[in-house]
Amino acid sequence: MQIKENEYLREHTTFRVGGPAPRYYIPESIEELIELLREHRESGVPFRILGNGSNLLVSDAGVDFDVIEIRGRLEGVELLDAERVRALAGTQLARAARFAQQQGLEGMEALHGIPGTVGGALVMNAGAYGTEIRDVLESCEVLTRTGERLRLSPEELALSYRHSCIEEKGYTVLSATFRLRHGAAAEIAGRMQDYRTRRMEKQPLNLASAGSTFRRPEGQFAGKLIEEAGLRGFSLGGAQVSEKHCGFIVNRGAASAAELYALISEVIRRVEAHSSVVLKPEVKMWGSF
Ligand SMILES: Cc1cc2nc3c(=O)[nH]c(=O)nc-3n(C[C@H](O)[C@H](O)[C@H](O)COP(=O)(O)OP(=O)(O)OC[C@H]3O[C@@H](n4cnc5c(N)ncnc54)[C@H](O)[C@@H]3O)c2cc1C
């Protein structure tokens, strides 16, 4: 297993910001991950799991916990039977969705463009274009805080809009099993392409971001509220409300986490002043702000 000291998290987040983690582990197998978690449990050293870092804003000063990266090494996807696909937690959602499509299994195509891992997508109950991961999830294997290996149903994960109980309970996701429907591979591929085109048209994919920065307020759209508050293109240092999609805060290249955080706070303040709606970040914050 690779262990790096003072590893800068900006190398591992899609926002491209974030200071160092004291220790950064890259386990090579599920067994190594389980052993590493046992050691952390016994020593009491705090840790967090990192997927693709596509929903994280990490402080410039870094974090005071160990980080365990699971993408890349802990990945793999297999067909369990005619309608079920199992993926390890570090598998890219795109890879799992593509694999399902190639088997002529539909249900994951709208999730294909979400740049996260299977584990990170479960934590967030990630979703797009009317599909959430809970719609296709049959079960999920987790390691508990006490080292027990459990298979949980979607109900036991309490999946709701961009939320699950995984973090509150201190679970580490090991793998997920998806139940899908039979479909024509070419048609599923066509829908994937359509979603990809829509993303490329609407989202600032050429700039570093963490996707939609804010949760969707009940009955409203964050991007629309931000635009109505006159904030399209508004910037603080290198952080900017995307010109292309106001729901995205982007790093124009040299933003610091402090600038991104300051802009998020300012957007919340101005949207509240304009429309009395208090936006809540969807992006998770690591470290002190
Ligand atoms: C361009 C862009 C577009 C996006 N579009 C969408 C979209 O359409 N829909 C959507 O929902 N999201 C979208 N996102 C946000 C993001 O991709 C999702 O939230 C994704 O599910 C995060 O997965 P991740 O692997 O990157 O998680 P990370 O950002 O690495 O981690 C997120 C949280 O999950 C925890 N975690 C990760 N893996 C595990 C594990 N195995 N066990 C326990 N905890 C774990 C981490 O500790 C952290 O708290 C987008 C992001 C970008 C940059």
Verbal overview:
The relative contact order is 0.14. The longest helix is centred in the C-terminal third of the chain and has 19 residues, at 257-275. The protein has seven helices and 19 strands. With 289 residues, it is α+β, with helices and mostly antiparallel strands. A hairpin with a 2-residue loop joins strand 6 and strand 7. It has three domains: 2-69, Uridine Diphospho-n-acetylenolpyruvylglucosamine Reductase, domain 2 (2-Layer Sandwich), CATH 3.30.43; 77-188, 2-Layer Sandwich (Uridine Diphospho-n-acetylenolpyruvylglucosamine Reductase, domain 3); 204-286, Uridine Diphospho-n-acetylenolpyruvylglucosamine Reductase, domain 1. A five-stranded antiparallel β-sheet has the order 6-7-13-11-12, covered by helices on one side. Strands 1-2-5-3 form a four-stranded mixed β-sheet, with no helix packed on it. The protein has a four-stranded antiparallel β-sheet with strand order 15-18-17-16, with helices on one face. The two termini are 31 Å apart.
Short description:
This protein is of the alpha+beta class and 289 residues long. The chain contains 7 helices and 19 strands. The protein folds into 3 domains: 68 residues, 2-Layer Sandwich (Uridine Diphospho-n-acetylenolpyruvylglucosamine Reductase, domain 2), CATH 3.30.43.10; 112 residues, Uridine Diphospho-n-acetylenolpyruvylglucosamine Reductase, domain 3; 83 residues, Uridine Diphospho-n-acetylenolpyruvylglucosamine Reductase, domain 1 (Alpha-Beta Complex), CATH 3.90.78.
